[in-house]
Amino acid sequence: MARAVKKDRSTEKRSESRGAPKGFHGASIKLVGVPLYQFKLRDTSENGASILVKEDSFMLNYLEVGQKLNINFSSDLESDHNGDFKIEIVHITKVDEGRYKGHYLVGVKILDKEDTS
């Protein structure tokens, strides 16, 4: 699978400002034939998020840039980021230093909120 690994993190290339989620903020993905996988979110914006994935996680084998899939966001404080969403993976970036060293940031763009009613 093609994985875009960007090592130069000196220039911010995202078009929206992002902020650290407040309170509990996570996401889960269920793929066919793969157990439910839960993630922590590093930051969120109105139309996207960065998901933390450990570098030795089997789930990295199932994620690729350009992939569209369903994800469930859950938050105890931010109601706009609760529920099922259709997303597209826009980057997978290895973190080489700092608090999240040993992880990948998977940047996702929210395409649509799924109607569960």
Search tags:
single chain; 117 residues; mainly beta; Thrombin, subunit H; 6-stranded antiparallel β-barrel; 0% helix; globular
Give the helix/strand layout:
Layout (H helix, E strand, L loop, with lengths): L24 E5 L7 E9 L2 E7 L13 E8 L7 E13 L7 E11 L4
Which structural class should the secondary elements be placed in? mainly beta
Give a short account of the largest sheet: 6 strands, antiparallel, barrel
Give the DSSP E fraction (strand runs of 2 or more residues).
over 45%
SSE pattern:
EEEEEE
Sequence of strands across the biggest β-sheet: 1-2-3-6-5-4
- Tertiary shape: globular
The CATH C-level name is Mainly Beta
CATH architecture annotation:
Beta Barrel
The first-to-last residue Cα distance is: 35 Å
CATH-level-4 superfamily name? predicted glycosyltransferase like domains
> Helix fraction?
under 10%
**What is the alpha-carbon Rg in Å?**
14 Å
- Nearest-integer average pLDDT: 79
Kindly describe this structure.
This protein has about 120 residues and is an all-beta fold. It has a single domain, classed as Beta Barrel (Thrombin, subunit H). It has no helices and 6 strands. β1 (about 25-30) and β2 (about 35-45) form a beta hairpin. The protein is globular and about 35 Å long. The termini are far apart. The model is unreliable at about 5-15 (pLDDT under 50).
